[in-house]
Amino acid sequence: MSSDTLILPTPEIFSAFPYTPPYNIQAQLMRHLYEAIENRKVTVIESPTGTGKTSSLLCASLTWLHDEKNRARKGKLNNAATGDDWVSTQTRDRLRRQLEAEELEYEQRLADARQKEAQLKSRARVWKKPKPDDKPQQPFIDGDASFLPEDGGTPGDDDMNLSPAVKALMARMDSHTNNEEPEMACTKIYYASRTHSQLTQVLPELRKLKIPGCSMVNINAVSNLDHDVPYSLGKRKEQDNLSSICSDDHKYYQSRALSLGSRKHLCINAELRARVKDIDEGCRELLAEKKENRCPYLPPVGEEVRMNEFRDQILANPKDIEDLALSGRVSGICPYFASRKAIPQAELITLPYNLLLQKSAREALGINLKDQIVVVDEGHNLIPTLLSLSTVHLSLPLVQTALYQVTTYVTKFRNKLNPANLVQLKRLLVFLDALAKYSGEWRDMRVEPGANDTQCAQSKVSPTTKTEQKSQQLEVQEVLTPAELIERMGRKVLGLNMLEIVNYLKKSKIARKISGYAEKLIEQAEKDLGPKKQVPASRKGVVPPLHVIEDLMTALAGATDDGRISLTLINTSGPSIASKSRPKQPSTVDIRYHLLNPAPHFRDVVDEARAVIIAGGTMSPISDVQNQLFSHLPPQRITSFSCGHIIPPENVLTVAVTKGPSGRELDFRAGNQGDSSTLSDLGQIILNFTRIIPGGMIVFFPSYKFLENAKSAWALATDGGYLEKFDAKKKVFFEPEDQAGVESVLQQYATAVAGSSTTSQTGALLLAVIGAKLSEGLNFADDLARAVVVVGLPFANLASAELRERMRYVKREEEKLLRERRKETVEGAQPPTALRGKDAAAELYENMCMNAVNQSIGRAIRHRGDWAALLLLDQRYSNLSIRGKLPKWLGGDNLVVPGQFGGVMKQMGAFFHAKGRTG
Ligand code: SF4
């Protein structure tokens, strides 16, 4: 019997879970996840913040991994001999002992590594950073010769991304690796989140898990797999009296966990970090250096044992990215390369999104997702990240700068460049020249002649806020396919082989050389101007223009059906275009390559992995993730799970407020947002709320423009003087337009909430914008948000050419898929008439809106003891379709829809009275 034929039944109890007994929703989530992994599903899981999501995800997936290991052993034993005779029994016993011995030997190795690390740490008090024992490393840029393209810069060779020096190094490293004993790779869980700071929360939860340790138990437990009763760690609870077999230290199994990061986070070569901007490139160059100039943190050839010891230390003790870098410094070994070596034996790998989602990053790290488990946490960020990873953003001035730099470079080095290089550089100049000309013409056609390039032809109204400026930009935007752009750039560009130029750029590293030369000229000019002239702050850390051009050309060369170029007219004079006090600036063009469809860039992950879990606190509407990422999958492979909250139902009140105090229906569509009676109704509603809500209260508006309208109207005594009235009950704050002001506003808001007991005010009121700086990622627990109010529905602006293009695209894709499904319909069956209840474009539009609403209301109720009211202001919230897109624990029947405003106040009064707190 092979291991593949053994099915792992879903456990009833997860004894590894650190908190016993788990809440029902936690147990349900774990069972759902275990089943999804076992049955190779793609699943979307919604588990609100504060419900122990991370613990549940880790416990279920590692329990499956533990059971899977036992299943694999069982398979091996069964494959060795199947009979019940004496010989078969002996064969199985011998193999069992061998497996045990191997496992114990490996555990001993890790125990030794743990001990060694402890010794190193205790010595680290007197540890000093190892110094490179030889001469200082050569700077990368040394004289004009270093600006010449790398050898072999002619198209056609393989490994276009690698210089010959790096290729030689890779070959050397491979040969070292090949001399080592092959390490057994194991099935693993890749746990991704958007940032390292989110990932640091994973390891503390991992340490709390109670997975039984000791090989003997694991081996013996194998026999349970055949039992009819569901087998799990929990079912073995009684027999897991491990003290008789294992020492206390090994009572619980320490999963081999590894944090993966980029060189940016893990490089410990301080000298290199101080010297270069591009650490990846700097490191590659160092690796290719001769012995004396190589990075001192890489053990010399023949001493790989130090690297292997450090790899074992990494696996023996889970470390987050900061601890990993620190351990590297203590050991004097590069943690970036050591962590790469640890991948095959790691059971849990935490990594940021970009390392999981970019194929090039996976390949560089040696990550193979075949049959592995992928967990994507903070899943609401997945689609935006997939789209942004492929986006290239540039402007007309950047194109002009790149053109100037290449022209200067070619003029200077013309006689030193070989003909092949010169040909490619001339082609690059053709491209840049054509792009600059076309963008300039595109701009000139859209500004009024004689208007000093400051006034947009399409808009006669001068915008006064960033929002207005933004909405004006939307009117002056055009979306093209890459083929259309190339055609408009002219005949010369049409004749270029874009792929050939891109290959040349990558192989010759000419972008870096040209940028380096341009930098040198600027520095020289600054020196000539005198000591007081500094490098402008704006230039420091800026990606060199040619690197962006290289990215754009790469995107154009490999453009897929869903790639688009957006051209947007931008006025560079700042928020106030028509301001008389500012000097007039010319308009410019913003150029953006972007994708309409995130799915192809996640498809590799989905197709290779055994199971994919997209988890988040707020994933509703779940259909959005399914439609956008998994339309190509058979429906039976996709599942979902949305659980309630562990808070008792009486800790949350969700109300759809459909009418104001005047009895008028609330409708905050864009056309009504400047209407004085609408603003007056809204002011009265918020005023009534401030009188009853204790502590902090956050009101989210659908746009800055609407918030500005309300602020202006409420400031006037003639229009109710609402701002003053709010302030009598709660100190009023507004979301700042600039990111720099956010921290200070939040600090003042929190102080006002905390200090309200000593003033006549009952807390603070924060007026913010959905989808802006305060609606995601912030934690407004307890008194910081006893109510979240959402005004209207934040539907995106349909005037946006980009949005319209995306909606057209999803509609076309849906029709294509429907045709395919019809073709696949078996004879006699009814062919599908639609893939879902609603047109794909309308569904996307509504889902984008509800995603934003759900993120905003998710700021409150952050832990099991928290409580708050969530108030949704607009009669459209009573629609079944909208209600169905709220998180399950808030929408559906949990949403209260009183007929009149008086009913809303009554509900709120009862809710806050029951909590013993009112405003
Ligand atoms: S080998 Fe490691 S420590 Fe050395 S430069 Fe590269 S990343 Fe930095």
From TrEMBL:
Q: Which GO terms describe its molecular function?
A: helicase activity
Q: What EC number(s) does this enzyme carry?
A: 5.6.2.3
Has the keyword Repressor been applied to this entry? no
Q: Where is this region: Disordered?
A: 121-160, 450-472
CDD domains found in the cross-reference section: SF2_C_XPD
Domain Helicase ATP-binding: residue ranges: 12-446
* Cofactor(s) needed by this chain: [4Fe-4S] cluster
Enzyme class per UniProt: isomerase
**Do you know which SMART domains this protein is assigned to?**
DEXDc2, HELICc2
Enumerate the UniProt keywords alphabetically: ATP-binding, Cell cycle, Helicase, Hydrolase, Iron, Iron-sulfur, Isomerase, Metal-binding, Nucleotide-binding, Nucleus
Please note every region of biased composition (Polar residues).
452-472
Q: Which InterPro entries does this one have? A: ATP-dep_Helicase_C, DinG/Rad3-like, Helic_SF1/SF2_ATP-bd_DinG/Rad3, Helicase-like_DEXD_c2, P-loop_NTPase, RAD3-like_helicase_DEAD, Rad3/Chl1-like
Give the matching PROSITE patterns.
Answer: HELICASE_ATP_BIND_2
Q: Which reaction does it catalyse?
A: ATP + H2O = ADP + phosphate + H(+)
Cell cycle as a keyword of this entry, yes or no, is yes
* Subcellular localization, as worded in the UniProt entry: Nucleus
Family affiliation: Belongs to the DEAD box helicase family. DEAH subfamily. DDX11/CHL1 sub-subfamily.
Q: Summarize the protein's role.
A: ATP-dependent DNA helicase important for chromosome transmission and normal cell cycle progression in G(2)/M. May have a role in changing DNA topology to allow the loading of proteins involved in maintaining sister chromatid cohesion in the vicinity of the centromeres. Has a specific role in chromosome segregation during meiosis II.
PANTHER family reported for this sequence: ATP-DEPENDENT DNA HELICASE DDX11-RELATED, DNA REPAIR DEAD HELICASE RAD3/XP-D SUBFAMILY MEMBER
Protein name per UniProt: ATP-dependent DNA helicase CHL1
Annotated source species: Lentinula lateritia
**What lineage does UniProt assign to this protein's organism?**
Eukaryota, Fungi, Dikarya, Basidiomycota, Agaricomycotina
